[in-house]
Amino acid sequence: MKSLVAFATMAACALAPAAAHARSPQDAGTWYLGMTVGSANVGDTPDVVPLAVGPSGPFVTDERDPGVKAVIGYRLHRHFAIEGGYAWLGEYQFSNQPNGPTGGALTADTRVIGLFVDAVGLLPIGWGFTALAKVGVVGSEVRTTRTVTGGVTPAPGLTTTSYADAADLKIGLGLQYDLGARASIRIEWERYPDIGTASTGMVDLDVYSVGVMLRF
User: Fold this and answer.
1) Which of 84, 134, 148, 194 has its CA 20 to 30 A from that of 33?
2) CA–CA separation, 22 vs 34, rounded Å?
3) What is the pLDDT along the chain (216 residues), one digit of tens a residue?
4) Nearest residue to 57 via CA among 49, 68, 65
5) CA separation for the pair 34, 45 (Å, rounded)
6) How many other C-beta atoms can be found within 10 angstroms of the C-beta atom of residue 72?
7) Please, are residues 96 and 49 in contact by the beta-carbon 8 Å criterion?
């Protein structure tokens, strides 16, 4: 009996550090994977469907699309992490009808995807919650496909299909809640300003999302 008690005591002592670590999801040196899903929204952007002459408008006909991210991250410090991954930032439709719906139009379909790297600041605020702020770079790929109907004249140099690859700034804010040692729920807002080039049209994107992060 004494040997059994001694063995149980030794096992408890050996497992105590691991249990303590499991109760500290905010520890440094932690890798995690995650996915977020939400709504990506584009602003009213005349650059995508510019005309050579004449009045313009309206521009955006489908301004909202699902936004999805796959994330891998590493927590370097209690207050700092690095994240990277892939983002589907949506597909949007634009139209420029200078003479009304029956007078012809320049329409466009714009798709945005990208690979990103973020520096993430973390502030534990108690009760399992952590506020976060991020700034990063997205290597975006923008594809715009345009169609002309009626008597409208596109701006000089505009092509039917345009592609652009560029490195662009991104920023974000969020709140994370630790479900336990291995999982967290995260809500985020991210801003992607001036994505694209003159050939594709430059767009501003806001992405609102919710996701799950799994630590390992």
Assistant:
1) 194
2) 19
3) 344 334 333 433 443 444 344 446 677 889 999 999 999 999 877 888 888 875 566 677 888 999 999 999 999 999 999 999 999 999 999 888 877 655 788 889 999 999 999 999 999 999 999 999 999 999 999 999 999 988 788 888 888 999 999 999 999 999 999 998 899 999 999 999 999 998 999 999 999 999 999 998
4) 49
5) 32
6) 13
7) yes
Nearest residue to 62 via CA among 100, 91, 102? 91
pTM score of the predicted model: 0.83
- Tokens 């975006």 identify what position? 140
CA atoms of 149 and 106, how far apart (whole Å): 7
The whole-angstrom separation of Cα 117 and Cα 216 is 20
Q: What is the DSSP letter of 51?
A: B
Inter-residue contact 180 to 215 (CB < 8 Å): no
8 A C-beta contact, residue 173 and residue 135: no
H or E, element range at 13: helix 2-22
Strand stretches in the chain, DSSP E: 30-42, 60-62, 64-77, 80-96, 104-126, 129-150, 161-178, 183-195, 203-215
| φ/ψ of residue 153, rounded to 5 | -120, 115
Give the separation between CA 146 and CA 158, rounded to whole angstroms: 9
